[in-house]
Amino acid sequence: MTGLARAGKTAFLTSLAANLLAMGAGQPTLPALAARLGGRRVSVALAQSGASGVPRFDYGAHLDALAAEPAAWPARTGAVSLLALDVTVPRAGLAGQLPPRRLRLEFLDYPGEWLLDLPLLRMSFADWSEGVLRRLENQPVAKDFLTFSTALPGDAARDEALAATGHRLYRSLLHRLRDEAGLAYLQPGRFLMPAPGPEPPWIGFFPLRGRGGLAGLLEERYAAYANAARQDLLSPLFGKLDRLVVLADLLTALASGHEGFADTQAALSAASGALRWQSSWMESVTALLSLRLPPPVIGRVAYAATKADHVAARQRGNLRSLMKALTERETEMASAWFAIASIRCTEDAAWQLGGRSVSAVRGRVAGQGVALSYPGEVPDQPPDDAFWTHPFFALPDFEPTRLPHARRAGIPQIEMDALLAFLLDDVL
Length: 428
Ligand SMILES: Nc1nc2c(ncn2[C@@H]2O[C@H](COP(=O)(O)OP(=O)(O)OP(=O)(O)O)[C@@H](O)[C@H]2O)c(=O)[nH]1
Ligand SMILES: [Mg+2]
Fold this sequence. Notes:
By secondary structure, this protein is of the alpha/beta class. The chain has two domains: about 1-115 and about 235-425, no CATH class; about 120-230, no CATH class. The chain is about 40% helix and about 15% strand. The chain contains 15 helices and ten strands. The chain has helices at about 10-25, 30-35, 60-65, 110-115, 125-135, 145-150, 160-180, 190, 215-235, 235-240, 250-255, 260-290, 315-325, 405-410, 415-425, and strands spanning about 1-5, 45, 80-90, 100-110, 245-250, 300-305, 335-340, 345-355, 355-365, 370-375. The strands form two sheets. It has a seven-stranded mixed β-sheet, sandwiched between helices. It has a three-stranded antiparallel β-sheet with strand order 8-9-10. Helix 2 (about 30-35) packs parallel to helix 15 (about 415-425). The protein is globular, with a radius of gyration of 23 Å.
């Protein structure tokens, strides 16, 4: 399960665990999944960590924070973690007499920052630098870094201190672009979300044009970085992935304006473009390197626009279509698109706006109490220039809905049940 920063990954996993556990206890939390099961009653339990080397997704802490008074959204995630559930499913139809099927469902919270490293694996340092430097040209916050890098002559000598300075400036720029400008298409991802453990020396690079000694040093480091990213993909953890959920917060991207939306669009397209070749690429390389059978390849992908509770039901079809228009690729993977809310915080409400009735939503907004919101008409295609003359209104920060009984009754959601029914269809 992956998505760009703030896409709603932690909320998704927390709600998924709470709702599957509650479903196992007989609660009607995931109707579409229950329909797919056709009356079979599953049992669900959090799996023991055993000898796993990956940190566990802290389901209990996230749920407690959401259920507390006042409720808190999860904090920003700092590392990869794994949610593992043991599920027992009675068999359907004639096989009903056989013992039930035991499944281990493992969901990896894969940082979106790292997803954006995939395109680097097949891109040269020069091409990557060119693309990054061009995207930075119009960024006011990039001034310090660009002043530094344009002052460097194309044949600058190989110099560790210069490399260190450039790296520091570039890395702090990436942080500002993410945290202040709200951008997502930022590479390399491990500069923002470092891999666990001490930082290797080859991390110290930055984008640079030219053919001198310094560019050579940076190119070597870039290659070492790409190699490490490749090794991570080949590790048993990632080699075992066989289905994927990609989350994106398109509503916030729409509200952030033309440039912000273009950034999200570029990031999504780079990431889903990389996934298209990932399966065949991984298959052949692993098979060659280790002379063993290729690992299972990703066979199912669910793409979901998140936080769909910010718009009324009538608009969610458009949101789903927009997600599809942004990510659809020719691929052998079974793909489906959704507009979900992991934690539904609003209800639909009619609202008189400028003399006409619009379908709005009503929820509790931090510091304001209950408020109505209508951000605008969601486009079903990437918006044209005319759209940006009447931009979206800012989205309110809804407080998490009150969940005093989340542990027993689950968490109200939108379309997460349909997403799970698709994702698990073959194993059910
Ligand atoms: N209304 C609403 N808001 C949501 C929902 N899911 C997430 N949010 C909002 O989006 C924010 C980010 O959600 P997270 O689940 O922390 O996102 P993330 O992808 O894990 O973020 P990082 O770990 O920082 O990359 C939350 O703090 C909420 O404000 C939802 O289903 N409904
Ligand atoms: Mg998170």
